[in-house]
Every structure is written in C-alpha cells, then in structure tokens.
Amino acid sequence: MKISKKDALEWFEYLSSLSGDKTEVYKRFSPVIESTIRQIELSVNKKHEDMKNEISDLKTLKGRTYFVGDQQNFPKGCVSCLFGDGLGGIRKTHQCNLLCKFCYYHDNIDNQESIPDGMWEIGETLFYEEDIDLLLSIQKKPSGIAYVYLEPFLEIEKYYGIIKKLSDAGVYQHMYTNGSLCTRENLKKLGEAGLNELRFNLGAVKCSDQVIEYMAMAKEYIPMVGIETPMTPEFYEAFQEKKDKILKTGIDFMNCAELHFGEDNINNYVGERMYVARRGYISPLWSREITLKLMKQACDEKWGMVVHDCSNHTKYSRELNKNSKQGQPFGATTYVSEFDRFLPHLFLATLEDENFKFLEEEELPEELKLENCQEEIDFLIVEEEDEMYDGFFDDEDEEDNE
After folding, report:
1. Whole-structure pTM value
2. Is 274 in contact with 347 (CB distance < 8 Å)?
3. In this structure, which of 28, 140, 244, 322 has its CB flanked by the most CB atoms within 10 Å?
4. Helix 370-401 and helix 5-17: axis angle, to 10°?
5. Residues 6+ apart with CB under 8 A from 298
6. Residues 216/185, Cβ–Cβ less than 8 Å
7. Whole-number Å distance between alpha carbons of 59 and 350
8. What does the pLDDT look like over 362-380, one tens digit per residue?
C-alpha cells in the first residue's frame, strides 16, 4: 500500500490528537502507520541518492558506508566497527562539562550511573584495571575498543594505564572528546600510552578556535586525529566560517554523524521534519543532507581529509556486522528505534511540508479511510480504557467485600 500524503497527514493529525496510550488503535491501523513511515523514507532515500550522484569521487566500503578522500586516512576505528567485532565500548566517566542540544543524554545527563572507583565497564561487566591482563589472556582479543560516553578528559589521568595495557596487547583504541579540556601534557600522555585515534566533537564547542588548535596539537602525538560530530545546521554554519583553519590542522578525517533521537534529546527538536530509517532510528531530514553537501564540497575543493558518511545506513550495517560476529542467527540485528512507543506527532512537520512529495500514491481501501474508521476507533479507545480501570475497580470491590 502506498498511502497518499493527504491521507497520511489526515490520519497522523488525528492519531496525534488522541490522548493517553492508544496501543490498540496503533496496532489495528498499523498498515496506515507503516505505509506512511515507508512513504516518507522512500522520498528521503531518493533525495539522498540524488545528492550522492552529484559527488564526483564518492567511494564505498563494500556498500556498508560511503566516504570521499584518501582511503588511507579512513578512520580505522570505523573499519573495526563495520568489519571487525563491532563498536566495543569501555565506560568510565559518567559526567560532562558541557550540555549540548543534540546530546543523547541531554534530559538525563545528571543521572548517569557512576562506575565504582578503580573499575571499568567493559561488555556490560565491571572490571578492576588489574583484571584486564586476565581478561585478555582468556577471551578473544577485540579488533578495536572505543572510549565512549560523555567526557573522558574530566578524569583523563585514569585512562593512561588501561590504554597502555590494551596497546601492549595490540588492541586498536579510539576515544571521543569535546576537546575543551585538552592540554599539550594530556595529549602527549595519551599518545605515549598508545591511543591510536582521537575524535573531536567539534559541534559541541561550536568550532572553537582553542579546540581547533588542540586538534593540530593532538596530531603531534596521536597517529589518527579527526572530527566526529552530529550534523546540525549550527555545526555546518560554524564549520564554514572556520573551514580553512580546520583543514590546516592536518587532521585525517571527519565523521559526519547523522543525528538521531532518543528519549533524552527529542524534546529539543520537536517540530523539525523527521523520518525513520529502516524502522529504527528517527532523524531530522537535514542531518544527512548536510553530510552529503560537505562530501560534495570536499571533492570540489579537494580537501586533504576523508569525509565519512556516518549515516543511519552505516549504523544499520554496523549492527548487522556485530550480530554476525557474535554468532547470532542469519538476519539478526540490534538496530532498533530508541523509543518504546509510536509517536505520530513527530512526523507532522514532514507531512505538512508542501515541498515534501511522496514518490507514488494510491487511494486507501475503503476500510482504512479515516471517515469510515471512526466508530471502530472509538470502540477500541473505550475498550482500552475499560481494561485499564478494570483492575482498579476489582481491587476496590475486594476491599469492600472484606
């Protein structure tokens, strides 16, 4: 079924107006919802393909991701993610010195669970640093490890020892930072410990001149240095203003992360045009479009660094690869939505946009036209509310009988 944009908007406006949990309504009319989400995605995919066709030197890694530039500078942490064991994360720090609008922890950043002193979370298990040697001697060495979650430079001195242990074992390691707490001393110590790759979230600091200088400094001590930041209009504007200075740092790559939403950052973006990629991540339409614009610009202007399309497609490939390496059944994936319920109001801005067109449209079957479904919807809503209150009144009756 290829629902028309007009019918989709009418349905989604109505579904958005319903209050409370309307699970049964969504389940009964899932063909309308699924068709609308797919129609939006198909139009978005077409726009992305058209933009990719305008990039003169677009390259791919076996269809799993896209990039432009010299493949020698492609981040090896991403190679590990897409072809190795997946994104193996080590967590220590539970705080950040900044609060970014796009942060996946935004609404809950002060409530992140802390790691006990002297311990590290690896594979959802807590280890003391002295246990790492034992772990490496027993389990298969990972293709790569990432120091993720919030801002590690808040306590960077705690990281040198574990980085050295994993480096001595031949494990490739990369770290994420907003860069604001870097110094020559801590960058040098990270390099001496054996960190292979450092990624700066330049969008978090609005392309700060100081952090750009730290990126150049990091290149003196760490083999691969790059940018990884969600693609937002604010970042795009700031990057264009500082582009020449950024390119002069000699960094190796820029990972253009397609922003996606979860429970803790969605409230900052309600009203933006959105789509769902492969029934999983929800993202704003402009995020990957910014990536593709930057990739074309990099080709046209012959930038000296790789520009990598770290899109929802890439993350979908990452999850398929990770599950295959973990012995899961053929087709198994952990690429899913960040939300445990359907939120129709998130897609109203897309459907209300007169310039956003569906590629093909069909008339809805009579039994799925909204005007013909009102009576059934009312029944489902009443039935669901009755079920919700049944238990409550039963409890009261039991108390009265006592």
Report:
1. 0.93
2. yes
3. 322
4. 20
5. 68, 69, 305, 307
6. no
7. 30
8. 999 999 999 999 889 988 8
- Compute the distance between CA of residue 255 and CA of residue 79 in angstroms, rounded to an integer: 12
Distances (CA, A) of 379 to 30, 363, 364, 373: 17, 25, 22, 10
Token pair belonging to 218? 């990091």
How far, rounded to the nearest angstrom, does the alpha carbon of residue 330 sit from its chain's CA centroid? Answer: 24
* pLDDT single digits (tens) 168-219: 999 999 999 999 999 999 999 999 999 999 999 999 999 999 999 999 999 9
> Rounded to whole angstroms, how far apart are CA atoms 248 and 264?
36
Q: Count of H helices and E strands in the chain? A: 13, 13
For residue 385 the two structure tokens come to: 């509310």
Name, in order, each residue with C-beta under 8 angstroms of 273's C-beta and a sequence gap of 6 or more.
Answer: 284, 285, 286, 349, 350, 353, 356
Q: How far is CA 290 from CA 3, 44, 208, 295, in A?
A: 28, 13, 20, 9
Residue type at position 314:
T
Q: How many CB atoms lie within 10 A of CB 71?
A: 10
As a whole-number percent, the residues of the chain with pLDDT over 90 amount to 86
Task: Give one DSSP letter per residue of 191-253, joined into a string.
Answer: HHHT--EEEE-GGGGTS-HHHHHHHHHHTTTSSEEEEEEE--HHHHHHHHHHHHHHHTTT--E
Per the CB < 8 A criterion, the answer to whether 55 and 296 are in contact is yes
- At which residue do the structure tokens 């002295």 appear? 130
The two structure tokens encoding residue 386: 């009755």
Q: Give Cα 288 to chain centroid, integer Å.
A: 12
Task: Provide DSSP, 364-399.
Answer: PPGGGSHHHHHHHHHHHHHHHHHHHHHHHHHHHHHH
